[in-house]
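lol ok so funny story. i was supposed to be doing the assay writeup but got distracted and ended up predicting the structure for this chain instead. priorities right. anyway since i did it might as well share w the group, maybe its usefull for someone
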Amino acid sequence: MTIKAILFDIDGTLVDSNDQHVLAWEEAFRSIGRSFDRQVIHDQIGKGTDMLVPTLLPELDAAAQTQLGEVHGTVFKQRYLDEVRPFPGAHDLLAAVHAAGQQVVLASSASQAELEHYVALLGAEAMVGATTSSDDVERTKPAPDIFATALKKTGLAPDQALVVGDTPYDIEAAGKCGVAAVAVRSGKFDDATLRRAGAIAVYDDAAALLADYAQSPLAG
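and the output, tada:
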């Protein structure tokens, strides 16, 4: 079936922010006297607070999890958000999808405020047809809620959409919605991890996906 909508993750996919999120989480954990190797934290990037914190600190209750997530959000916004830049080709990839008549949907585990910041950073205001953030759902990736909500906004069937993401959690969440997913390596997850999660294709980054757009799964 023809692909009528592309559901894009943002962090690590369209903007180069995963390392900054690792640093912000490192500071958040330090605030409660805990520490983890940065690779351990990185391997959880792509999840929201509700999924990331219980994985690393399962003993924390819901209130403590929420508080830690708030610390991360504050640190990220105050110290790292302004450092984040779009990946080369990210704006042009969105423009190509839009020009092809496909819906551009941004579906992120980020907060609504961060999502709006990234839309402006990408210069994508005129191209984005719908968005979904962690503020819109009860559970973040790898739960299906974010992509399921985004798909509902498009009014399309799962086989009429495609997800583009950089983490195994994007791929898993898409699969739970019956949506195929293309992965990019720009989030620094290895091919084996992305393929194991169910990625149907793997590209280096947004620019590589744009260069191969006509032959890629995005073009159907």
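Strands lie at 5-8, 103-107, 128-132, 161-165, 180-184, 201-203. The chain has two domains: 5-16+85-219, 18-83.
back to the writeup now i swear
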